[in-house]
Amino acid sequence: MKSKHKLILFIIIVSIYNLLVYGLYYFESNFENTNIRNLADAYWYSLVTLTTVGYGDFYPITFWGRLIGILFVLGSLGILGYLITELSVKISEYLKKREMGFFGTKMKNHCIIIGWNSFSKRVAEQIVKANEPLAIVVNQESDLKDIRQLYSDDQCFVLLTNLKDYESIEKVNITDSRRVYISFESDTDTLVYTISLKKRFENINCVVAVENVELKSSFNYLGVQFIIPKKEIVSKFIASYIFEPNVALLTEDLISTSTEKSNLDICETQLSESSEHVNTNFIDTFIKLKKDLGITLVAISRNGELIKNPENNFKLLKDDILVYIANGENKQYLN
Q1: DSSP readout, 225-240?
Q2: Which residues in the chain are classed under CATH 3.40.50.720?
């Protein structure tokens, strides 16, 4: 309806403009000493006046011609103001859409967080610390502002949208993501949303954190590979701090993202076809990494199965994932 009104207004303005130009031509062309002799001269004068260029090569000399000329001069002020206003509005709209993530991202093999709360905030902090590409999807402007205050555009991409608008969620390039972490305060909301999301994007890899461990089987049925029971992990940590405090301190260091050389990290790297470690025995690779890089190889993941502390003669193959302990400096050499 709004566009229809704009079209009608445009037609009215164009009609009035053409009537004034014809009137200018009519009054001026019949005068002896005029320099506006035809419609082309009248249109040229009107355009030069309305755009505030004012060459002065054509000008009206009759009373009625000058009156129409005054209307063109006054109209030029309105047009200039209108153009400046429209330009400002368009720039503001563009910046607003850009801030909301309207134009999307082309990042690939990235992490996505859907939903923003205190728990997902801590998850995002670890991902950003690891310098991993991150996209966050939120449905409240206050969450958008919160993320903008915490992270720059280089650190993460943020999309503000209705979380059930799956066409908009495609703007975070969800099908090319590495992992999608779904974070809601309620386990039921998380489950319902995961069902809807997996129905639309069947092949995405989801990660969820739940309060109720009994829902684990429901998420497994949906094909969610990684379900983290919050209370179970917290209780294990507390128990470890009680009877094995040093083990707990080391575990905390390992699972948090290392930013300094003294910090340790558990990392994983997939072997490419060109890797020097393909077709080597586990023990040989273990010794070489430890000796050359100070990296401790602890497990191998093959076809989704985690093999802890393999046999010495276990042969590494292409696409195997090495799981190893490294500090903040040397972990980069195995990527």
Answers
A1: -EEEEHHHHHHHHHHH
A2: 111-233
